[in-house]
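Example 105, ligand zinc ion.
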Amino acid sequence: MESRIAQELRVASGVCSRCSRIIEPGGLFYSLLIKVSSDFDGVIKIEDKEYDMSREFEKVKSYPEELINEEVYREFRFVLCPRCKEIYCANPLNLPLDTPDKNAG
Ligand SMILES: [Zn+2]
């Protein structure tokens, strides 16, 4: 995976993150910011009766902070040329296009 610094450099140098096309000075381009954060529906499922909250907490504390942060929140920044922006917006999650539309009919 591309490092954050490499991503930032791409943003600064005006190159499309997807197709590597150079975006001319003054040219049209799009910024894509993807934020992925953990969410919580308020339900705590503890199926294991032996579940020890403090032990789990100690376990999490032993993980590197960076790893925990990445588990909770990640951010991606990209620059897209107009063509790649259209392609991205048409299917942001890259879902298979050959599936019949369940809502049709
Ligand atoms: Zn592009």
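Summary: Residues 4-38+47-90 form one domain.
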